[in-house]
Write a structure and sequence with these properties.
This protein has 2 helices and 4 strands. It has 106 residues and is of the alpha+beta class. A hairpin with a 4-residue loop joins strand 2 and strand 3.
Amino acid sequence: MKIAIASQDKQTITPHAGRCQNFWIYDIDQTAVLGKSFLELPKEQSFHNSSPYATHPLDEVQVLIAGGMGRELVGRLARKEAEYPSCAPGSYHSGLHNSPKRLPLP
């Protein structure tokens, strides 16, 4: 499973996902974090500026974690069968822990 965490400053969870261009991507399985990478999008590929019907670099993630997002993005993710949990990485998966607003450092 792939989890994307919106993190514009690379250290905290971004309050609103729509204009965010930076995402930590975690590959996880049932018991562990298998890998972590960083994805930096150009402005035109932020959710706010890109078409909801075009392919997107985050299409392959199953979960998007952010402080919040608008109805349009929630609908866009639902059409692509992604989840939006109302929890931080620590409570979403035991391999991702720490404060809900602070990301594990690489």
